[in-house]
Write a structure and sequence with these properties.
The protein is of the alpha/beta class. The protein contains 33 helices and 17 strands.
């Protein structure tokens, strides 16, 4: 029954495509045979279709578990546009009323709904479990399955409960899908979902149309980003920032420079957030500025660039976010700005949390630092991280490959590293290895008496960055690997042992220092046969989208418009031959496009194939006034940071600016709650006798018993009382 001709015909009928992409057909066939499936497919690879087509073909309703409300809405809208009826897909989550939920349930029980999207939190509610027991479930799809793993970039505890709940409802085929999963994360997912012997469908993580670029962050970052966006006028793009305040501030800078932009973060009310996302999807604005912490979950295929104002906290998060560029196979530029301060701030976020969580966080930050600083091919680095080998030396589509640094011989350094790792029997991490080689008597080195090892100090004069580069590139060459289960000790591989017995040349490139980089980029154009017609159809697409209340790309994607602007279809039958245009879509949207094409062909007698200057935003005092008034009312500082969308470090920055400018603030009410009185007195006394208010100097002098936050709070009290 499920032969290739039938499946291809159904693909064309429902989605308008002539052929399957990558592993799609194999996955779909496995699901239709009622077997469990694990799908590893990069963003833009067509994961959704792997469960959408089987859901349409199988009896009953498919339950799709997804963590992002915005993504659910987009996918439901897309399915409705592919179909002639709106009841084909629904979602149940916290954004809809009880009356709407009852209507959804009625449609499901009547048999008209083929896909039901639910948030994991909604799935755990007893009333929903009870309802789903009455439903004939065709299959379960666990989307964004990396959320199951603590090593994933967006861990959700609710995802750990999915398997027992599914077993409680009814056993049906399960499909786990993710765009980002290292071997460790993949194992966690399979173990938690009880899918250890499942068929695994792994597509390449290589997004060949994406250009990767990492730049050093300095005071001119705003100018640099504005210049880039203005040079790509009219192209949709996303800018990710670490904090809500940064999002709001940067949106104002973009607007001041004539760029249409809106913010998107968790601190906004849901209505405003939805409106801003819709404005981006509907092409009313060019740029959305969003927090890294709050996943947008958008499904917009023509995003032309993704800019990270702040470096993300993990490579998986970075890959997921950059993956939102160029999902239609067209141009996609991924630019990230890196600074040491970003990493230090993120390290502070997990202080006080369980040791295991701190260790995981530290490992993830170490990996993202390695990616930022490396001078080797970024594509090769990323693919290695996800367990895939990229054999080309130069991808021609990243900053490092377009501006290659000179290679240096590192044979002797590699031998030193491998010998040290072998001597330590794979029990110590990178920092410890480097300390031994450089001859540093750190507390850990002394406690293990490793200062007595014969390798201690053998590379005393060598630069730390060079040693890190050797270790990273030795891992990619297969000489070393990391024991992830134990938070990252380095181990010698069989290949590494073989190298030690017969060393050969090992040439590497030194890591980036982000000074004087040339950010050359490839320029790609859109292959359109008739640019004038293409432009008119894009305008028409906006009008049609507004009429139907849906994003423009759900009417027809750019690739479909490009084909129309090349082949000039003038009837519904011809339109259905266009990539991405099925019968339902042609019938629903095609009439106006055919009329436009026909008119354009006739008027132009076409023979068809078949016949900066950066403006800054004035520094507002409103935030500072609000902070002063909140402190006067004795609002806890951590509550103020939450209300103002700042992390605690940023709030301290603002308060320090206020007191340094001469305003007296009394934060005693907060200090009494959060600080030991003796600690406060000690730090206060230190500043009384100190010749500098420098925090780094204070940390060094006061020692490890005092946190940086405690020292900054005490300094605020000191300045306010003694200087103001």
């Amino acid at each position: 029954m499920w032969n290739r001709d039938f499946l291809t015909g159904q693909l064309k009928k429902h989605f308008g495509f002539d052929v399957f992409k990558g592993n799609q057909e194999a996955v779909i066939r496995n699901v239709l045979e009622e077997k469990d499936s694990f799908v590893l497919m990069p963003t833009g690879g067509g994961k959704s279709l792997c469960y959408q087509l089987p859901a349409l073909l199988m009896e009953g309703t498919a339950v799709v578990i997804s963590p992002l409300i915005a993504l659910m809405k987009n996918q439901v809208d897309a399915m409705r546009n592919f179909s002639e009826g709106d009841d084909v897909a629904h979602f149940i989550n916290s954004s809809i009323s009880k009356a709407q939920i009852e209507r959804v349930r009625s449609n499901i029980l009547s048999g008209t709904t083929k896909l039901l999207y639910v948030a994991p939190e909604s799935l755990t509610k007893e009333e929903n479990i009870e309802f789903l027991r009455q439903v004939k479930v065709s299959l379960y799809a666990v989307d964004e399955a990396h959320c199951i793993s603590e090593w994933g970039h967006d861990f959700r505890p609710e995802y750990r409960r999915i398997r027992p709940i599914i077993d409680d409802i009814c056993r049906r085929p399960i499909m786990a899908l993710t765009a980002t999963a290292t071997p460790k994360v993949q194992h966690d997912i399979q173990k938690n979902l009880g899918m250890m012997d499942v068929a695994v469908f792994r597509s390449s993580f290589n997004r060949t149309n994406l250009y990767y670029d990492v730049r050093g962050k300095d005071k001119d970052i705003d100018r640099e980003i504005v210049k880039f966006i203005k040079g790509n006028q009219g192209k949709p793009g996303i800018v990710y920032c670490r904090s809500r305040k940064r999002v709001e501030d940067f949106v104002e800078i973009l607007r001041a420079n004539g760029i249409s932009a809106m913010p998107y973060h968790a601190g906004m009310d849901p209505h405003s957030r939805t409106n801003n996302q819709d404005a981006f999807l509907m092409e009313d604005i060019d740029v959305i500025v969003a927090t890294i912490a709050f996943g947008m979950g958008i499904d917009k295929p023509d995003v032309r660039y993704v800019i990270h104002y702040d470096i993300p906290k993990s490579i998986e998060g970075y890959y997921q976010e950059t993956g939102r560029a160029g999902r239609d196979g067209g141009e996609g530029r991924c630019i990230a700005f890196f600074s040491e301060d970003d990493l230090k701030k993120m390290e502070r976020f997990v202080r006080g949390k369980p040791v295991s969580e701190q260790e995981i966080h530290k490992q993830l930050l170490e990996e993202i630092r390695a990616y930022a600083e490396t001078s080797m091919c970024r594509r090769r680095f990323l693919l290695h991280y996800f367990g895939e080998e990229y054999k080309e030396d130069n991808c021609g589509c990243c900053d490092n490959c377009l501006n290659p640094k000179k290679q240096v011989e590192a044979r002797e350094l590699l031998i030193s590293v491998l010998e040290t790792v072998e001597l330590l029997r794979g029990k110590f991490k990178t920092d410890h290895i480097i300390s031994i080689l450089q001859g540093k008597e750190t507390s850990q080195v002394l406690s293990y008496e490793h200062n007595g090892l014969e390798v201690f100090g053998t590379e005393k004069g060598e630069d730390e960055k060079m040693l890190r580069a050797v270790i990273r590139q030795a891992m990619i060459a297969g000489y070393l690997d990391k024991d992830i289960e134990n938070y990252g000790p380095l181990r010698l591989t069989l290949l590494g042992k073989k190298y030690l017995s017969s060393p050969v040349s090992f040439r590497i490139v030194k890591d980036n220092d982000f000074e004087g980089d040339d950010h050359s980029e490839p320029v790609r154009g859109v292959g359109v046969g008739d640019p004038a017609l293409f432009s008119m159809m894009k305008d028409l697409r906006k009008q049609v989208a507004r009429k139907h209340g849906c994003p423009p790309w759900t009417v027809f994607q750019d690739v479909s418009l490009e084909a129309m602007a090349t082949t000039y279809p003038v009837c519904l039958d011809e339109l259905q031959n266009i990539p991405g245009v099925g019968a339902g879509k042609a019938k629903k949207f095609g009439g106006e496009f055919i009329a436009l094409i026909r008119r354009h062909v006739e008027e132009n007698e076409i023979e068809r194939p078949e016949d900066l200057r950066i403006r800054t935003v004035a520094n507002k005092s409103k935030l500072k006034i609000d902070i002063v008034q909140s402190i006067d009312r004795k609002v806890a500082l951590d509550d103020i940071s939450g209300l103002k969308g700042l992390d605690f470090t940023e709030l301290l920055d603002e308060i320090e600016t206020i007191v340094y400018s001469g305003t007296k603030l009394n934060i005693d009410y907060f200090l009494e709650d959060v600080m030991d009185e003796e600690h406060l007195e000690d730090i206060y006394a230190y500043f009384k006798g100190s010749e500098t208010d420098d925090i780094d100097v204070a940390v060094a002098n006061l020692g490890r018993d005092y946190t940086e936050e405690e020292i900054r709070l005490a300094r605020i009290k000191f300045i306010s009382e003694m200087a103001n």
